[in-house]
Amino acid sequence: MRRPDLHLHTTASDGIFSPAQLVQRLQRADVTLFSITDHDTMGGLEAAEEAALLRGLAFLPGVEISTEGEAEVHILGYGVARDDAVLLSFFEQMAKDRIGRILAMGDKLKRMGFSLDLERIMASAGGSIGRPHLARALVAGGYVKTVSEAFDRYLGDGKPAYVPREKMAASYAISLLKSRGAVPVLAHPGLIQWPMERILPLLKAWQEAGLMGLEVYHPSNRGDYAKWDRLARQQGLLVTGGSDFHDEDPRHGQLGETVQAWESACEDAWALYRIAHR
Ligand SMILES: [Zn+2]
Ligand SMILES: [Zn+2]
User: Fold this and answer.
1) 37 C-alpha to center of ligand 2: Å?
2) What confidence tens digit (pLDDT) does each residue in 144-200 have?
3) Is residue 161, in this structure, part of any structural domain at all?
């Protein structure tokens, strides 16, 4: 069976496999069309493109942008150009903001008397530093027993070492992607745990900003595929899907997984591919 998988993470963000390792596994899982959608970076796309060529898989370059205007919402962008200067500087700024925030939280912890080697923590985190890295350092230092205790006592929203993030609205990410010729798609809509009456007006506003698709076939929508599929088609949105594979943790999807329930997977995925390649 030919399967698409349009939502995948690599070591360029928080996945465990490099693009080349991932492509090898995709081939074994009979995936024929795939997209790499790392969080807020296009760093894995060149290697993925090379690996796809080598193994004869169709590849759609992508990215997943984290936003939190109205709610915590992720926007997928398909058909991004990995050398797009505007997008590159946008992601660079996001990375700077993220690092600045983690350093500020680290400083707060140090002032509270914890001994932390921030430079080492930054170096160990590679591309995408986040609160979990500070939490793990607190565990390693013996200050707390678990990562979740670190969040409950110090790092969670409103806790003593917390520093809020710069908030970016989903519509901003959508119009940016659109203006760069990419296809903006709302990722895992089922994770926005709002009633439909609240989601519908938002969806309308996002469509006005340029939203073109809905990620119906995502593991978190399991059980609700028919509802989201109907909604997407009613609203004139492209239907997309992917496993959101990060690692072998069962909380994330496994390679090629969502396609089992996605009857029109090939038509839908190739429709997206054609539009994103224009
Ligand atoms: Zn996501
Ligand atoms: Zn994802």
Assistant:
1) 7
2) 999 899 999 999 999 999 998 888 999 999 999 999 999 999 999 999 888 889 999
3) no
Query: 230 with 150, same domain?
Result: no
Asked if residue 126 has pLDDT above 70, the reply is no
Q: Which domain holds residue 148?
A: 90-155
Distance of CA 242 from the midpoint of ligand 1 (Å): 11
Starting from the CA of residue 67, give the closest ligand: 1
- pLDDT at 128 > cutoff 80: no
Over residues 98-124, the pLDDT tens digits come to 899 999 999 999 999 999 999 998 887
Q: How far is the CA of 189 from the centre of ligand 1 (A)?
A: 10
> Would you say residue 83 lies in a domain?
yes
User: Does residue 229 share a domain with residue 215?
Assistant: yes
Residues 217 and 189: beta-carbon distance below 8 Å: no
Total domains in the fold of the chain: 2
CA distance 28 to 68: 36
**In angstroms, rounded to a whole number, what is the distance separating the alpha carbons of residues 19 and 22?**
5
CATH at residue 62: 3.20.20.140
Distance CA 265, CA 243 (A): 13
76 shares its domain with 111:
no
